[in-house]
Amino acid sequence: MTMQTISCDVLILGGGSAGLWAAYSCAQQKPDASILIVDKGPKDWGGLMTMAGGDFEAVLAPDTVDAWLQDFVYYFDGLCDQKLMEEILTRSKDRLADYERFGCEFFKLEDGTRKFVRQRGLDNVKLYPAQLKGRGGELMVKNLVAQLKEMQVRRMGRILVGSFLKSGDRVCGALGFDSISGEKYCFTAKVVIAASGMGGWKTSYGKNTPTGETMLMAYEAGAHLQNMEFARVWNMPRLFGWEGQTVLMPLGARFVNRNGESFMDRYSPVLGPNTDPHYTTIAMAMEVRDGRGPITFDLSQIQNENLILLRPQNGWQKLNYDKLSNLGLDLFHDSTEWVPQMTVAYGGIRADAWGNTAVPGLLAAGTARATEPGVYAGGFALMTTSVLGHMAGENAARMLEGASLAEADNDIEQDFAAMFAPLGKKGLHFKEVLTHIQSVVFPYDVSIIKTEASLERARKELVSIIENEVPAMAAEDPHYLLKVIETRAVAFVSLMYVTASLERRETRAGHYREDYPVRNENELAWLCLRKGEGLAPEFYRVPVPLEEYRFPVTRYYQDNFNFAQKETV
User: Fold this and answer.
1) CB 3.0-4.6 Å disulfide test: which of 54, 123, 290, 427 passes with 130?
2) Sign of the torsion angle spanned by Cα atoms 56, 58, 62, 68
3) What would the pLDDT profile of 433-444 be if each residue is shown by its tens digit?
C-alpha cells in the first residue's frame, strides 16, 4: 500500500465540536496557517455533535458566572477546577452568540425571550433548547463547517490515526490509514490537537464511535490521564435509542417501579426525579435488585404546551419517533421500560485550561481531556467542547510563533507494520472481544454499585483479555482493522476505569462505592495516572487547591441522596 506524507502547521485529530472550534479559532488568529482536521468518520460528519439535540448551556444576563460556578462546585462534590470552570462559563455566552451569528436558532417564547430549562435541581444552571428538536447539533456542524470552508481549513475523513510521531519527547505528527482503501498517511505538524472525544463501549446509536484510541496513543506517548474512575451510565429505553432527559425531567417526567412508585422521591426527598442520571441509575439498580423492577418512564405529568420541546422535527430521533408511531407506540403517553446503559468514559487526558498536556507539542480539547467528574447537566458538553476547542485553537496559534517542523525519531516502516499486523491473518473477530469486554464492565456491581470484590474480578478478567484476546484479533480489510484498533482502545479504557475505581476508596460525584459509601475529605483530589510498568498504571493525586480558589466547598450534591449514610471520614 502506498503512503502519502502531508505536512501542516496544526494537525487536529477529530472533527467534532472541539476539533471544529479549534480549527475555527486557530484560523482566526493565524489566517495563513495550514490547518488540517483528520477524522475517522465521514468528512464533515461532526462527531457526536451531529447526534446531539443542540441544547446549549451559557451564562446569560441576568445570571452571573459566580453564581453558576458555585453551582458546579456543589454539583461536582468539590472536584471542580474553579479556574478552568470560570474560564469556560465566562466564554460560554460568546460561543452561543457565534452559533446564532452562524445561523443556528434557539427556542424563543412568543414575547421573544429565550426559553430555558433549569438543570439537575441547581439554582442557576440552565440550558437553552435548540429551535429544531433533533436537528440542533446537525445544524451546528453544518454552520461551523461552512465557516471552515471559507477559511480554507482542510478536512479529511475516513482516516484512522493509530500512533504519534515524536521528536525526542515532543509530538510532531501522527501515522494513520484510510479505513476504506488502506492507504497509509504520515502527517507531520508543528502542533497536534487531540480533539477526538472520550473513550467508550460502543453502545447505542451516537455512542458507537468514541472508543479512546487517541487517549491510548497519548498515554503511550507520555501524557497523563485523569478522572478515569468516572463513566456515564445513562437511562435508556430497553428497546430503542432516545435522549432528552435533560429537558424531560425538569418538565415533570419521572421513573416508576413495578408498583407504580416514583422511587426517586424516596431516595432523594429534596430533588426527586429531577436529578442527575448517575443518581437515578443507582436507584434503578437498587430497585431491580430488591425485586421492584422493571422500571418504566412516566411522562403523564408534562404539560401539553411543553411537548413542542420534546417531539423531534428531524434527525435520527425523528426516524425513531416515526417508527415507534407506526408500531402504535406513543412515546409521550404510553409506558416504556427503561434500563441503565453504560455509554462513555468521563476520564481523559490531563490538561490545563489552554489544553497543554504533559507532552510538548500535544494539546487536548473537548471531551478528549478530563473536565467533569461523572455527572452531567444538559447542554454542558456542547458548551465545554466549544469553549475548550476555541481555547486550544488560540493556544495552537500562539505556539506556531517560531515553531518549525521537526524530524521524527520513529521507525515509520516498523510503526506501520505493527499497526497493520492484524490485517489478513487468522484470528478472533473484534466483536467477540468487544462483547467479552462489555460483559465484564457492564454488570451493575462494576459500572454502578461498585465493590472491591467485583472490581478486582473485572480487573483480572480485563488483564486476561488484553494479554490473550486483544493480540489474537484479526482484520479481513482496512475497515475491520479500524474496528480492531478501536476494540484495543476499549479494552485499555476499561482496564483504566476499573483500576481507577479500585483506587478511589470513597463515594463522590459520579463514583459510587457500596463498600466505601462515605465521603473521605482526604480524597478531595483528582486521581491521575501515567504509564507504569506493564499494564499497571502509576497513580498520583492532585489535591483540589482550595487555598487558591475563591469559593470554599460547603455543600455536596451527593448529600441529597440516602443510598447510604453519608458521613465524612
Assistant:
1) 54
2) positive
3) 999 999 999 999
